[in-house]
Amino acid sequence: MQIEKVYEPQRFEPHWAQWWIDSGIFQASVEAPGPVFSLVIPPPNVTGVLHIGHMLEHTEIDVTIRWHRMLGDNTLWLPGTDHAGIATQMVVQRKLAEEGISRHDLGREKFEARVWEWKAQSGDTIKRQMVRLGASCDWSRERFTLDPGLSRAVREVFVRLYEKGLIYRGEYMVNWCPQCHTAISDLEVSHVDVAGHLWHIRYPVNGLHGRYVTVATTRPETMLGDTAVAVNAKDSRYFDLHGRTVQLPLMDREIPVILDDLADPEFGTGVVKVTPAHDLNDFEAGRRHGLPKIQVIDENARMTAAAGAYAGLDRFEARRRIVIDLEQSGALVKVEDYPLSLGKCARSGTPVEPLISTQWLVKTKPLAEKAIAVVENGQITFVPPNWTKTYYEWMYNIRDWCISRQLWWGHRIPAWHCGECKEVIVARDAPASCPRCGSAQLNQDPDVLDTWFSSGLWPFSTLGWPDQTADLAKYYPTSLLITGFDILFFWVARMVMLGLEFMGDVPFRQVYIHGLVRDAEKQKMSKTKGNVVDPLVVTEKYGTDAVRMALLQGAAPGTDIVLTEERMESSRAFANKIWNAARFLFMNADPQSTGIQELTSGIRPIEDRWIWARLNATAEAANRAIDQYRYHEFAQLLWHFFWHEFCDWYLELKKVSAVGWSNAIAAFETALRLLHPAMPFVTEELWQRLGQSTPKSIALVPYPKYDPALADAEAEREIAVLQEVVTLARTLRTESKLDPKQQLGGTLYCRTATLAIAQRHAEAIQKLARVKLAFKSERTPKARAMRSTAEFDLILDVPESKEDPARRQKEREQLEKNIANSRRQLSDEVFLSKAPAKVVESIRTKLVDYETQLAKLS
Ligand SMILES: [Zn+2]
Ligand SMILES: [Zn+2]
After folding, report:
1. C-alpha 420 to ligand 2 mean position (Å)
2. Which ligand is nearest to the CA of 343?
3. Cα(858)–Cα(849) distance, rounded to whole angstroms?
4. 431 C-alpha vs ligand 2 centroid, how far in Å?
5. What does the DSSP assignment read for 770-818?
6. Could you read off the pLDDT of 459-496 as tens digits, one per residue?
7. Ligand nearest, relative to CA of residue 178
8. Distance 509 CA to ligand 1 centre (A)
């Protein structure tokens, strides 16, 4: 059978990507047999395009999913996207701005229609890209967080939490973006280091003439809203201030001195100003002491009427004038340069303003307690396990969760305000009239919910909840979540809390946290550095399989992944190697007529016994590696097997023996199956060419498992001897600088049973090393071109002129160096206590080997 000379992934990858979808083989069925393995995708933003981080995440998921499917599990990978409230709204607003209109010109309904229109046009970019990259998800179950079903789940959860008293409306300090006009979550605030200042201001103490306290602030404009100063009760410097008041400069307001741990005696002057309306810590201190909250900055970042003479000014203009006024009045003690981390809105770049506003909040403490318990008792485990600690830290220090956003794109809060009596009605559907006063004047709350509210329900809302569907019964709890560490709290923790509350069970049993993809210099990829790798560009260049393999090779748990051009290039070469192996095999045997039945009876050639033993050992290790998320090990195992065992030795030995081709085809087919989860395209393409009619895809063929019957220590030992002789002979040839094609004579001296093994392979040795050997069991004579192992000596008949005395000297020096190194390692107590026994053993063996060689050389 003919196979094309050149491996061109671009020719067949799009075909298989589409064929997998059309043939429906990734579609899960609740009726299918086997243990359940289910996983929901971390939904990418609908605005997004695939980046290399997604590709890593999807490759790891896909390897695991394909593996489970091949194991015969009832496997579901549920895909979908997130409506991503603020991110999407900003994209559409920018488009409107290009047309010269704002969302307010359109009004809410028309604006929402525009966003849906935009979503219909470009919202499935991610899906198209995922399909192209071979993600084996069940697209018939694709979900979007704003689907009618998921929106119903959101309303149901909101109403039930409200009825339980776990959702309330109240005052809360939020990160406010004066540009986007909404509260934003901590994740949407990006911190930038800026050169700021620290202004030291003194406040006179009332009733103690000439006594002052000095406070320091990076934001002097907030002093207009101070309603106290705090000292620590234990700070002896300020005992005389207990019970007194100070006079607030510029505002001429009398404010109390409070005793609070907010003031740290070790830090600065030990006195701090308290501005409950503009700082979260002060807000909480204000609650403890019942302080008034005076808002001096408004939603547009302008000074309010409460700011006195500064009312109406922009916050930064107000700052400038306040500093001048403080200086002129003598209240400014000093100004220091002070580096600070400024919070900016990640969408608009505007400095965030902490503001108090009336928001909807979730009381998270009771939910968090249960979410901590399920990790403590092992119902959910994190891999790597160190993330457990991070999870606990967040959960023990959890604050109430502000779930309302002042946006138009998202799930509208299911609450209505009565225009007559101000009653707030929370309901699943719009009420006709106010249950308290009967008025029909009801207005729905204008806010929408935080995006993480709906994605927090993702593992059960996507399976049909609140209905008791067959999918929900079959696939919840999901088996595994694979995601990034940055959303461990925002998403993972919320899913745990909400899953326990509404399903009474954990949303997933295991969480695997993957690393970041970095460039060759181990730098984070970023647009500003210009080192971003676009997955679509590199897959076009190297092939999807090669990029997947390159990512997997670096994907050790708990480490970041370094992705380089070299690695992708060598992965492409690896795919090419497999392609060429198929080419060679198919030239010698047409699998469609030979069949791929393994020879199980009769006398099997030794190389076949060996390759099956190696396949078997590789299968055992590969299964274990995927099971433990050791993707790098999985990739390296398959690489080593295919390249160094199957191609470099097995196929070469087959050329010599030239019998048992159906066996070779069978071994190749098994190897393709082992590799399939990592490199789905090239394995599918070649597997299809084997002419199997059932099942219809390699993705559905059983994954190879360890079979004790295939273990064959004798064959492994025999081929090891052959490999050793051939390798040594090749080394000697290279060192003697001989023409690689020149046939040589030589002698193998050996006084153990190994001699007989080597003798059996004289023909293979002659063909692979171009050395015709004589075999002798007598004492080794002195010779020039000689190499030794602990068991045998190999002498090549090298022509006189090629002999190089300097080489022997060099060889001796190298051996002495190796011996010294091994001895040092074996006497290093620290090394011995840490190194695995296998490693220590191999150093010992090598040492004996070096010593024998040196003795023989001398
Ligand atoms: Zn903003
Ligand atoms: Zn009413």
Report:
1. 5
2. 1
3. 14
4. 11
5. -EEEEEE-SPPPP-SSEEE-SSEEEEE---GGG--HHHHHHHHHHHHHH
6. 999 999 999 999 999 999 999 999 999 899 999 999 99
7. 1
8. 37
